[in-house]
Amino acid sequence: MNKTYTVKEIQSGKLEEWTTAQILDEINRDRSNEWQNYNESDWIEGWLEFCEGDIYTIPALQSRNMKTKTYYHLFDLQNSQLMATGSNSESLEELKEALLSYVSIDYPSEDDGSEEWQDWQTIQRMSVQELCEMWEFSIEQTPHKI
């Protein structure tokens, strides 16, 4: 018997019931001749790697205890442009560095007791989200199960 799963089209929110065969068709479609098709024994891996979060999502798979990879996108709202992108938590610090570099504030390199030094220390302690709010940037997070 071919089990069915609820598949959600992300943009419209439309829910459909798909059989495993339909899911396999989506995973394996439009691939090169060298592609090795996924089958009923490994379709979850194929779905999570090549389909989940692009156009469709399978909500039942989100409840599984699987590792999540989060993609971060940093946007300059004033100039409407993507400034940096990364994945997983270590990338938040990388995005913070990219943001600090882009804004290019000239602060003292050592503690000279000045107000600028105190401001710089405050900025260093702020999260990337707080900096984005202060400098009119946006950070989007897109989680994907892997």
Topology:
Elements: E1 4-9, E2 15-19, H1 20-28, H2 43-50, E3 56-57, H3 59-62, E4 68-76, E5 81-87, H4 90-103, H5 115-125, H6 128-135, E6 137-145
Helix pairs in contact: 1-2, 4-6
Write up this protein.
- The protein has 146 residues and is of the alpha+beta class.
- The chain folds into 2 domains: 4-65, no CATH class; 70-145.
- It has 6 helices and 6 strands.
- The protein has helices at residues 20-28, 43-50, 59-62, 90-103, 115-125, 128-135, and strands spanning 4-9, 15-19, 56-57, 68-76, 81-87, 137-145.
- The strands form 2 sheets. It has a 3-stranded antiparallel sheet. Strands 5-4-6 form a 3-stranded antiparallel sheet, covered by helices on one side.
- A hairpin with a 5-residue loop joins strand 1 and strand 2.
- The longest helix has 14 residues, at 90-103.
- The radius of gyration is 22 Å and the shape is elongated.
- The mean pLDDT is 80.
